[in-house]
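Morning!

This is the sequence you dropped in the shared folder:
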Amino acid sequence: MKIAVIGGGASGLFVASQLKDYDVTIFDGNEKCGKKLFITGKGRCNVTNNCDKEEFLNNVVNGGKFMQSAISRFLPTDTIAYFEEKGLKLKTERGGRVFPVSDKSSDVIKTLERACKGATIKLNEKVTSVSVNAISNYSTTVIPTEVEGSISSQTSSMCYAKLVNSSTTCHPEQSGYFITCHPEQSGYFITCHPEQSVAESKDLGKAAYLITTIKGKYTFDKVIIATGGNTYSGTGSEGDGYKFAKMLGHSIVEARPALVPIKLKESVKAMQGLPLKNVTLYAVADNKRYSQFGEMMFTDEGITGPIVLTMSSYINRAKKVELYLDLKPALSHEQLDGRLLREFDEGKNKNLFNVMRSLTPKNFIDYFLYKVSLNSQRKINSITQEERERLVKGLKNFPLAYKELYPLDSGIITSGGVNLKEINPSTMESKKNKGLYFVGEVLDVDCLTGGFNLQIAFATAYACGQAIKKEEKNGI
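The structure's back. Tokens below.
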């Protein structure tokens, strides 16, 4: 059985390692495998998160129900065992994040490549199309080259011609059948098949696939699409998998950036690089409320940092988004008001700017006071109760004018992908085309940061590999 794996990243290499007893060919358009894997985790490669099934699913933003079967059969502990059994020593850090002891992503890639020993790896060979190869579905005979009928187009390996000679066993032209001609020594192989795609025919059991690359054409019994998403295009993740899926009749959930910074409408360039710690970021997205506690930082156009990246994954499909900051989440509204009263009482003759330094970072004060319509040079003894209330509300519910997310290519991962309704969650096989599989980020599944997205890659690849081996064993 010939199996093609399109994509030499995490999921592609992993599924190939599951199928080393078969004739496997890995196609990758880069000069080496694992190019995106190489830069993950800032070059350290956070291979998984050492958590249980429940915690893993809690970190899946889209596709949690779909992932239940695959993650049940290949848990994060299985990923850890897989690598350690192959000689890669791992360590668990804060938040359950698992890294190689060497802190080198290259060691993860080398381990996966060694596990694929026996597979043919075609580098610098970008796949341009994947199609159902109808030839394998119908009987083929050899007839002389002088067969009546003209060849409309011909390449070095294949040509197509309308059947004109109705004396053959094929149906006449008007019935909608064609012949496929392959030059073969003294004659042509003639194959009769209907115009409709084999994917739509009833005879799916014999379907095979034609893969076209920049270097040639290949046929395979099964195809596994492991091309990743559409972020970090410089690593080869250009959304090709979506194109192939569409070619084969699948629908795509629009690709959106995930785990990405957020742009604001107002200029915040003066605060670029300013961190805010122990704050809570709130979002109201299409009437759904989300919150994240932790650290963030201002960029030249907006905000970034752990809580911002996480929030982006929850709001990237919303049409309307509002953002707010609680700068003092540990204090209630009343407690904060009480603290302000004490600060004001102790510094009656100070400027408001100086008192605010104990409440917010210095470089944030001017922007904050501008938003609550107060002058930084006002004396504390002139601040009214209503103005103090504005300060409290600003500290507890500071508005950030949401504009949009940073571009797709800025995201750590892609949200969106092949529609999960069209994929068998137990096998990763297409419900539309037998022998076609999708694994990893090309699917409409995405998680938060912490090793969860690579766990998706490995779990879906494992499900796919096991399904193919079981099918072959049972002779299906």
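Headline: Confidence is low (pLDDT under 50) at residues 136-205.

More detail when I'm at my desk.
O.
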